[in-house]
């Protein structure tokens, strides 16, 4: 996986991925605000019946410049 500036990753358990589809996850991940994104995924999984436990980790990649400073 090539990490590029601005890349957003959603790491999740099968309780999340199994409950809602890839298209819905993709739409939810496009939310600009991180807390809204996490809350949106959590709520969507619960509405879908969450057959298992659910875990989420949101990662927004911000690459450092030559001085080591992140934007």
Q: What can you tell me about this protein's structure?
A:
The protein has 71 residues and is α+β, with helices and mostly antiparallel strands. The chain has three helices and two strands; from the N terminus they run βαααβ. It has helices spanning 14-17, 22-29, 34-47, and strands at 8-12, 56-60. A two-stranded antiparallel ribbon has the order 1-2. It is elongated and about 45 Å long.
Question: What would you say about this model in short?
Answer:
This protein is α+β, with helices and mostly antiparallel strands. It has three helices and two strands; from the N terminus they run E-H-H-H-E.
Defining key terms:
71 residues, alpha+beta, two-stranded antiparallel ribbon, 2 strands
Beta fraction of the residues?
A: 5-15%
What is the C-alpha radius of gyration, as a whole number of Å? 14 Å
Which strand order does the major sheet show?
1-2
Number of helices: 3
